[in-house]
Design goal:
alpha+beta; 2 domains; 5-stranded antiparallel beta sheet; 5 strands; 14% strand
């Protein structure tokens, strides 16, 4: 990943570790979704052992989990098996993930977006589900657009 400075790679990984949404990382660091994914997946591949991963990579998973990101989302973002996430969390973080309350059903973004752009990954590959709701076919997030803010649906918390 020599196209990015090591400091920028560290910023991406630290923000990721601390539970920041990929869309937030993209916006704050002003870099494309593809490059953020390349850094995260590159870190995964650099820490791959034969049939496992290094403790450093497992700690990144456990820290992201501890910072409120669902295990299913972590597995999807890192393109790994959900059981790998579970084992990393058991070894380096919380053995059991607590069920979130209904207040976590949405993540609020204090910004409005056009219905043609995904607020999470900036893709234009979106479908309009209802008048103010969109679904991104690239990242799989659903967004409810309001005046002055946008809600990202956290499906893992919806009953």
């Amino acid at each position: 990943m020599r196209y990015l400075s090591e400091k920028l790679e560290d910023k991406i990984l630290n923000a990721y570790r601390n539970g920041s949404d990929l869309g937030y990382i993209i916006e704050k660091l002003n870099i494309p979704h593809k490059k953020v994914k390349q850094v995260i997946i590159g870190f995964k591949e650099a820490n791959r052992l034969k049939k496992s991963f290094t403790d450093e990579f497992k700690m990144l998973i456990a820290e992201r989990d501890s910072n409120g990101v669902s295990r299913r989302k972590i597995a999807s973002e890192l393109e790994i098996n959900a059981n790998t996430v579970k084992k990393a969390c058991e070894a380096f973080g919380q053995a059991h993930k607590e069920k979130a309350s209904s207040e976590n059903e949405y993540t609020r973004i204090n910004k409005t977006f056009p219905l043609t752009i995904c607020p999470s990954c900036n893709s234009n590959n979106v479908n309009i589900v209802e008048d103010n709701t969109t679904y991104c076919k690239d990242c799989g997030n659903e967004h409810i657009h309001h005046q002055g803010y946008t809600l990202v649906v956290n499906w893992e918390y919806v009953e």
